Amino acid sequence: MRARPSASHFVDGRPVEDDAGDPIDVIYPATGEVVARVHAATDAVIETALASAARAQREWAETDPAERGRVLRRAADIIRTRNRALSELETLDTGKPLSETLVADASSGADALEYFGGLAADVTGQTMRFGQDWAYTIRRPLGVCVGIGAWNYPTQIACWKAAPALAAGNAMVFKPSEATPLCALKVAEILVEAGLPAGLFNVVQGRAPQGSALVADARVAKVSLTGSVPTGRKVAAIAGERIKSVTMELGGKSPFIVFPDADLDSAVSGAINANFYSSGQVCSNGTRVFVHEDVLEEFTRRLRVRTEGARIGDPMDEATDFGPMTTEAQLRVVERHLATAREEGATVLGGERLDRPGFWITPAILAGVRDEMTVAREEVFGPVLSILAFREEGEVLGRANATPFGLSAGVFTRDLARAHRVAAALEAGTIWINQYNLTPAGMPFGGSKASGIGRENARVALDQFTEVQTVYVGMSPVEAAF
Ligand SMILES: NC(=O)c1ccc[n+]([C@@H]2O[C@H](COP(=O)([O-])OP(=O)(O)OC[C@H]3O[C@@H](n4cnc5c(N)ncnc54)[C@H](O)[C@@H]3O)[C@@H](O)[C@H]2O)c1
């Protein structure tokens, strides 16, 4: 199986190759086969991308916002008509099963393009009065923005960043993860096909050096990163030194709380989605599953039975619902965490390496996990669900919040007052009540504490790709002291 992009990069409206850059092999995680090869961007490619973005952005900012919106909505329509091919590419890039990618990747990208396409003509300022004088504000695009992606949702991440940036009149240079370089190239092609002028959305490949070169460039006004906390610290430091604004979508160790009155089957489904979807490679996953002592045994029993029913196999078979890890390195991280959890006293059910080519490990349920164990403190980013017992609401809230992360949280209960009381007390950017991991384009998504700065999606993302310019209007003669 081969994926063969027409070139490594997409710059100034067309595919661009420069094989002087370091090679990056694209590996299909289900088999370990090399399916394509791209090259990291050379300085020349980065220069062309930034120069074309800076040039194109000036005109785009002057374009009628309604026209900008039409381009994005046309791109959304094209993505939907090609959903199957794009989903197969996403599966090839990430190893996620087609049963997921057909519904959650290209279509989520299309949702964002459609949503921000609809909002493009509604970027408005305010007016305010000061006696006879008054002032008004204009929301202006920032200029050239850089997007840097993680490997778990390559199409979605590219679209979630491009859509608000472009709707607001910015240009973007996007660097996908080196592990999944293919999907963003398709997004770029489709945007141009939909009528996006050349230079407004460029894709350049590479690793940390290419990412940091983009962030450091004086022409870049803003950086939106999806990645780990350590990378976030580095990227925010480069941006901070140069006073650039940032959106940081980083990692998590989110709590998922099951009260004794919860609909237990629904809570089990929620926990499965919050831990095993995309083989657990989801930033917002609720990996610390706090279960009330009264329902602990029954919850664990149902969870085990359901998890044993997971159909693990060929990701291209639509009947499969659990695929491999995306990279061999991440598989090793998961194995290391499982070994440490065993040493620290957790009972590990599942989590077995499958004897076949590719990066396969079965879903793991860890029982008897305590707060101080490594697996309860560090992000694993794999199919590892930790069960922790609790007794009281106040106790579980304290434990849930005792983490440097603050991305997400989940609460399962039938008690309305408790659901909202607990949600209000949780230190997390996104909280689901009796649901988990749903992220419609109209809902702000992002983290607090070490999990991030800023939000993606919804109107707030548009605000964060613009800045406020204030104009004060004097209506009377000016007085002065002398
Ligand atoms: N909050 C969210 O929305 C969200 C979504 C998906 C993934 N994530 C997080 O992403 C992580 C997994 O993804 P990953 O392993 O690709 O993350 P990563 O931090 O290793 O890499 C992310 C991106 O940053 C680039 N990069 C690495 N070092 C850089 C540097 N010094 N300067 C500039 N760019 C640099 C990488 O090449 C890659 O494109 C997890 O921590 C996960 O929680 C967060």
UniProtKB/TrEMBL annotation:
One of its GO terms (molecular function) is oxidoreductase activity, acting on the aldehyde or oxo group of donors, NAD or NADP as acceptor. InterPro entries: Ald_DH/histidinol_DH, Ald_DH_C, Ald_DH_CS_CYS, Ald_DH_CS_GLU, Ald_DH_N, Aldehyde_DH_dom. PROSITE patterns: ALDEHYDE_DEHYDR_CYS (PS00070), ALDEHYDE_DEHYDR_GLU (PS00687). Transmembrane segments: none annotated. The active site is at E249. Residues 19-471 form the Aldehyde dehydrogenase domain. Keywords: Oxidoreductase. It comes from the Bacteria. Gene3D superfamilies: Aldehyde Dehydrogenase, Chain A, domain 1 (3.40.605.10), Aldehyde Dehydrogenase, Chain A, domain 2 (3.40.309.10). Belongs to the aldehyde dehydrogenase family. This is Betaine aldehyde dehydrogenase. It comes from Hasllibacter halocynthiae. The lineage of its organism: Bacteria, Pseudomonadati, Pseudomonadota, Alphaproteobacteria, Rhodobacterales.
